[in-house]
Amino acid sequence: MKKYIILALILLFSLTTYSQQKETLVTIQFKDSPIKDVLSKIENSYNLNFYFSDKWFNSGKVSGIYTEEKLTTILEDIFKNTDLNYFIDKANVYILQNRIVYNELPKIFSAPINDTVSIKEKKSNIITPVFYNKNNNDVNNSIIETVRIGKSTINSTKSIFTLSGYIKQHLNNEPIPNVTIYVKNRNLGVSTNNNGFYEIKLPKGENLIEVSSIGVKTQIKRVFLFNNGQLNFSLNEDIEELDEIIVDGAQDVNVEETLMGTSEIDSEESKNIPLVLGERNILKVATTLPGITTAGEGATGFNVRGGKTDQNLILLDDAVIYNPSHFFGIFQALNPFTTKSLKVYKGSIPSEFGGRLSSVFDIKSKDGSIDNFTGEASIGPITNNIALELPVVKGKSSLMVGGRSTYSDWVLKSLDDDNLKKSKANFYDLIAKYNHKINDKNDIKATAYYSKDVFSITSDSLYSYNNAVFSLSWDNQLNDKNVGNLSLFNSHYGFNIDYDGDTNDDFAFDYGIIETGFKYKVTYLYNSKHKINYGITSKLYNVTPGNKEPLGDESDVEKINLDKEKGLESAIFLSDDFELNDKLMFNLGVRYSAFTTLGKNITRVYKNEEPKNDETVEEIVNFDNNEEVKTYGGLETRIAVRYLLKDNLSIKASYNKMYQYIHTLSNNTTGSPIDTWKLSDYNIKPQKAEQFALGLYKNIEGNDYEISLEGYYKLSNNVPDFKTGAQLTLNENIETEILQGKGKAYGVEFLVRKNAGDVNGWLSYTYSRSFLKLNSKFSEEQVNDGDYFPSNYDKPHNLNLVSNFKITRRFSFSGNFTYQTGRPVTYPIGNFTYKGSNYSIYSDRNKFRIPDYFRLDLSFNVEGNHKLKKIGHSFWNISVYNVLGRNNPYSVYFVTEDNEVKAYKSSIFSIPIPTITYNIKF
């Protein structure tokens, strides 16, 4: 005992002696220099000796200019962004990692006995050293990695610090939710949230942390905590041979998440569902869910909760896809083998999304494997498809490429329509994606996509349309709690029509829209109860409304070029996922958007409160290039709330307000690939909508069964429609043909879903109504006397049943049944003769309906054998689309023949369509 006292006195004496020494003054300058080089420069110039370990220095560089400055000041500056401290003893400088050597005792030990200092104050001011227990070197005979977090500061008296971080999968960097973080020597623990984030308060010093979850290998680390800091874990998959077991890490997400009216579909889920011609189609699967419909077979686009097809924002890796379909809407324009997932927002739309009123289809493509070369291919009756994943720098980067083409003309010849039998159609699409992991904090991804369709409905016209998309994304972990994402994107959509008839009116017509922009979003994980998203986005539109030129030297067609359109749409957004307590959670969001129409153009100004026509033009204004023509904007509120009635039962409510500044021009009852897009301008106002929703969500037996019931009510304004017989193509005064009115939609959506077992699938039913009102004091701007009338896509009843029956591990049956109310149509109800000509009298708009639609599809699926060592895994799909041969009408049209109006019904697939598709994954 005496020798320890003597050693302590000697140490105290030496420290006291040092404290009385004069401190060294240093003059030095350095720029972007490694810390080690700076220390060597000081060491050589001032006869000092620095002691340290090279491995303590990272690649960071420092800069500074000092004149006759204290050595301690310089060391504090160059070590401020590290976990390094120092101790100076005469000419020796000892660099320390997370450690402090004190050269005097705390004042509390030298305070006079009669001073008034409470016991509590004394204890709070004592700086406790960190001790290391050698007996804990191993746990279960395994070596434990030791990690030091934070930097000790000489005046710090805190004893509790915050440790936070992310836990992800090692192979694909995906976050892992519900991972347990247990501190073995403190009996403390937390778990990660849905984003893989955790936060825990721990005592200063040694903490033995064990990270574990089902399906991953457990990790244990000894953490010496000296201050607040971050520790991330990358976990490997833990494979054990077990009896069949299904593990769902997000089994209660439908009940627990705040947002309502959302659906997420994995691309693999669409593999077994029978669809026309055996082609996997994640977007068609979405239409079997409540609230999402199409106008019919052969129609492009989707109608979501009573909205028009142009009211859906369809994104591929953050870039807009203007036409997501091939072959008259029968196929999706996205390669199913390169598509990872689809998330549909139709109720609660996050504030980061905007520009559309009804929904967001957020499609994500797959990241290529960074470790192994893999691929997938298929051969079907009209398409072939391939996707490859190639590691570029193993463990860091990869390239994914995919391509699809068709040989489909023979299908058209088999259809029950003489016009279609003489038609031809083909398409192809290409996609490439590069992903690169720069380091633990930075990832970049780049996606390029191109698709083209060519079709001819009649022998004298050739149509083509194409999508081109590019996006670049940079994920950057800014600090312990902030993650930034910068996306740059460019989208192009265009179509061409070449008409080559028997007369001298041959022409070529083209249309195009280009969208270029960026979005920067920051996710701020304030704590376990607050997740904040904020950011800014902007996009520039360039529209070529139409060019018509004579085709060939003998054509008499006059050349027409409409003025190009330009507009800038920008927004800032903020949202907070706020958990008030275990039961109540909010998602509060705001978005302020603005749109400016830009010149160069010539704009008509019409008299107020007068119909827009040639007689009411008040002024014609010329705007220069990029000159502001008109600006619109407003605050968009997004609110969602969830209350847990029980662990497996919740109630949710939401309110959305949205603006839309771009519209399609079409007087067809269904969407078409040659519909043109029109920007809001001086005379055409942006669309607005408000939606209220309420829902109830229930899980049974874990999440083996999911039940949801949602109701919504939506009001919209400035919804564009058109005058009867409107001329929309190549009309330089298109505002004279457009009517903007009010809309309302409401409905109830029911879904019951079975996720587990040999028999699984879902049943969805939607009752919904959608109406428009075009009212004016001028008869030429009225429709149906200014009363509400059903929209073209109003279908009150919509029922879908999707089921899968697993016979064995290799064999399964699948079925899909769909029923829809027939869409509205306007019928002729009489005729009259005037001056020798016959004319038809039509009913109120959309007063009648075409026959109801129903269809049954069946498929038999054969998986390849499950041998571990084989070249690839095969999958056969044998399906029959429209098993009952139902002659579902696509449209009803009327022709006057022999002074008599006759009705005709057109169908796309009126017979059963059998298909065999072979898939292989290697």
How would you describe this protein?
It is built from nine helices and 59 strands. The strands form 14 sheets. It has a 22-stranded antiparallel beta barrel. Strands 8-14-13-10-11 form a five-stranded mixed beta sheet, with no helix packed on it. It starts with a helix and ends with a strand. The radius of gyration is 34 Å and the shape is globular. With 922 residues, the protein is mainly beta.
Provide key terms for this protein.
922 residues; mainly beta; Phage tail protein beta-alpha-beta fold; Immunoglobulin-like; Maltoporin, Chain A; 3 domains; 22-stranded antiparallel beta barrel; 5-stranded mixed β-sheet; globular; disordered N terminus
Question: What is the rounded distance between the termini?
Answer: 72 Å
Under CATH, the topology of the largest domain can be stated as Maltoporin, Chain A
Q: Please report which band the strand proportion falls in: under 5%, 5-15%, 15-25%, 25-35%, 35-45% or over 45%.
A: over 45%
Q: Let me know the average pLDDT.
A: 83
Strand-helix topology:
Layout: H1 2-19, E1 25-34, H2 35-46, E2 49-51, E3 61-70, H3 71-79, E4 84-89, E5 92-97, H4 107-110, H5 119-124, E6 138-139, E7 142-143, E8 145-149, E9 160-169, E10 180-183, E11 188-191, E12 197-203, E13 205-212, E14 219-225, E15 229-230, E16 233-235, H6 253-256, E17 262-266, H7 282-286, E18 292-293, E19 303-304, E20 312-316, E21 319-320, E22 325-326, E23 331-332, E24 339-345, E25 359-365, E26 374-379, E27 383-393, E28 397-406, H8 409-412, H9 418-421, E29 424-439, E30 442-456, E31 461-477, E32 482-499, E33 507-527, E34 530-550, E35 560-561, E36 565-579, E37 584-598, E38 601-606, E39 617-623, E40 628-646, E41 649-660, E42 662-665, E43 676-679, E44 687-700, E45 705-722, E46 738-754, E47 759-773, E48 788-790, E49 797-806, E50 811-820, E51 824-825, E52 828-834, E53 837-842, E54 848-849, E55 853-863, E56 873-881, E57 889-897, E58 900-907, E59 913-921
Parallel strand pairs: 2-5, 8-14, 9-15, 9-16, 20-25
Antiparallel strand pairs: 1-3, 4-5, 6-7, 9-12, 10-11, 10-13, 13-14, 17-24, 18-19, 20-21, 22-23, 24-25, 26-27, 26-59, 27-28, 28-29, 29-30, 30-31, 31-32, 32-33, 33-34, 34-35, 34-36, 36-37, 37-40, 38-39, 40-41, 41-44, 42-43, 44-45, 45-46, 46-47, 47-48, 47-49, 49-50, 50-55, 51-54, 52-53, 55-56, 56-59, ...
Membrane topology: Multi-pass membrane protein
InterPro entries: Beta-barrel_TonB, Beta-barrel_TonB_sf, CarboxyPept-like_regulatory, FecR_C, Plug_dom, Plug_dom_sf, TonB-dep_rcpt-like
Protein name: TonB-dependent Receptor Plug Domain
